Amino acid sequence: MLPNHVPLTVAESFGTLENLYPGRVDLGLGRAPGTDMRTALALRRGQGGHDTFRQDIHQLERYFRGQEGEPIRAAVARNTRVPLWILGSSTDGALVAASLGLPYVFASHFAPAMIMEAIQVYRTSFDASAPTATLEEPYVMIAANVVAAETEAEARRQFTTHQLLVRGMARNNRGPLQPPVDQVELSPAEAAFVEQHLAVSAVGTPRQVADQLEQIVEATRADELMLNSYAFDPEVRARSFELTAQAWSQP
């Protein structure tokens, strides 16, 4: 969440990671603060409410490239060329990614409402000739929620942890993850809220999850998927990803 951080610090942190783990680090840049405004102000240098997202991205790109003539250099980041991705959940982020010629990640794991519109805007507005461009053509990653288990019933039970989390958002009562339950009690308004937020999810047996993910790829023409899971038990979460990977690799 770039508004919360000074670009120089970001460049030094990710430049360090790239030096430690070459070729294994990507940097996703989001425009939203990702928190309440008091916390955002505590995290970020004073900027008087001005949106400096694009300028900060350009500054990061210069730090990673090690451009000559820069008055300030992030030595550990120079020439690492850490891949930059633009994160978004609306057409605003899509336009930024397109205008800069960078890959785009849509946050459909929690805000899928504008997924098709944002992807269309990104693809039709993509500028491969931008000075910051790293691609010759658009590249889209879609985030999806996943819970796979040996049985569909068990997967749906584990998924209730995520449903409870979103219900808490609807009630303005955020808190830690809760253990799964047999049934999530929802009012009609809450049910609609939960369904809308979790629309891009794959839940069930490994084969069902793989089929659902294939449908998501077919609908969005995504180039890549990023999977998310809020299973309460870390071992259940890890097993879910393992089962999904196994099913995905099978014809």
TrEMBL record:
Membership in a protein family: To bacterial alkanal monooxygenase alpha and beta chains.
NCBIfam families: oxido_grp_1
InterPro entries in UniProt: Bact_Lucif_Oxidored, CmoO-like, Luciferase-like_dom, Luciferase-like_sf
A Pfam family it matches: Bac_luciferase
Protein name according to UniProt: Luciferase-like domain-containing protein
Domain Luciferase-like: 2-219
